[in-house]
Design goal:
CATH topology of the largest domain: Immunoglobulin-like
Number of strands: 18
Radius of gyration: 27 Å
Structural class: alpha+beta
Length: 337
């Protein structure tokens, strides 16, 4: 049996939208059922993901409201003032949701702590820079050398193992059973080798975003490189995707869930590029008005990504992906909060 009951009361209406830097006030109410010592009654404001994936939480800086003895029958009120952190914004998606909570915890020795929370709404669109979450990576999503080696080794092992087992089992039955593994292994081998081949001729290829990616707006995506040899760029395709990813866990097994919300495609013709020439290709990407903000934390991601394919005549394609730091549109000047 719990020795006390704790709940949070806020001074503002539950549907009021808060902004970073705003002071939120309220009180932690405690009803004491049995004599008990509280080693600390703490309150704080924190974001937390919920949905299909394992929960991720933002940093929590607790404020201690009380420490000492409580007597049975007491009804106590502890007022607080908390400052709303800089972001991210409240978000409701299909697989991923981001909620903000005023949470209170009574630390009870030799017993389970008593928790209470109240959800609040936060609009962080006016913050600069906008907080896209601790897992958001700016710039080109490039594989590290270690990841490239693992990709190549995994493909070689998969392809080699499938051939070995298929031959050992004999005839078409063994070969047909191992064919899917061989195809997958071969794909990873080719993926690793083709990236290296593309760089040997194109040099380092980079993607750069120009502009503020907000709902209803547009940004320019620049692709630039200095080839080591003359190349014939046939075309450049860009796939703009908004998707949610969430990883759930069931014991030792993990499952990745994906939901594509929006896709758009762009294609532009190529041209010859001479060795040593500073080649720059530009593509304007349009972000729909209903776009949600990009976010990444732990097992939860809301991703805006541009996947670019640079096709070169008689040579492997170069493929690269860049995340777009999409943010909510800033409120207009003088708009009521």
């Amino acid at each position: 049996m719990s020795r006390c009951i704790v709940f949070v009361e806020l001074d503002h209406p539950p549907d009021e939208v808060l902004v970073p830097g705003q002071v939120v006030t309220g009180s932690v109410e405690v009803s004491v059922l049995l004599d008990v010592r509280c080693n600390g009654l703490n309150v704080g404001v924190q974001w937390q993901t919920h949905g299909r994936g394992m929960a991720s939480r933002g940093p929590l800086v607790p404020t201690e409201l009380f420490k000492g003895e409580w007597k049975a029958g007491q009804d106590l009120s502890f007022p607080f003032e908390l400052t709303v952190p800089r972001g991210p914004s409240t978000y409701e998606g299909t697989l991923v949701n981001i909620g903000w909570f005023i949470s209170a915890t009574a630390n009870i020795p030799w017993a389970l702590d008593v928790h209470a929370w109240e959800e609040v709404l936060v609009d962080a669109s006016a913050t600069d820079p906008f907080d896209n979450g601790p897992g958001f990576v700016h710039g080109l999503q490039a594989e590290t050398p270690g990841q490239q080696v693992l990709t190549l080794l995994g493909g070689l092992i998969g392809a080699g193992f499938s051939v070995t087992v298929g031959v050992a089992m004999g005839e078409w039955i063994g070969l047909s059973m191992m064919l899917p593994m061989f195809v997958v292994g071969s794909y990873f081998v080719w993926s690793s080798v083709s990236k290296r081949l593309a760089r040997t001729k194109l040099g380092e290829v980079d993607l750069e975003l120009i502009g503020d990616p907000v709902p209803g707006g547009a940004v320019d995506l620049l692709l630039h490189f200095n080839p080591h040899a003359d190349v014939e760029v046939q075309y450049i395709n860009t796939q703009l995707t908004w998707r949610e990813e969430a990883i759930s866990s069931d014991g030792t097994n993990q499952t990745t869930h994906q939901e594509t919300i929006f896709e758009d495609y762009y294609e532009q013709p190529g041209r010859p590029v001479a060795a040593g020439e500073r080649a720059v290709f530009s593509q304007t990407l349009h972000i729909p008005a209903h776009a949600g903000p990009c976010f990444a934390a732990g097992a939860n991601k809301v991703i805006w990504a541009a996947k670019v394919t640079l096709a070169v005549a008689s040579w492997p394609d170069w493929v690269g992906t860049i995340w777009l730091p999409v943010r909510p549109a800033r409120p207009s000047a003088g708009a009521a909060r």
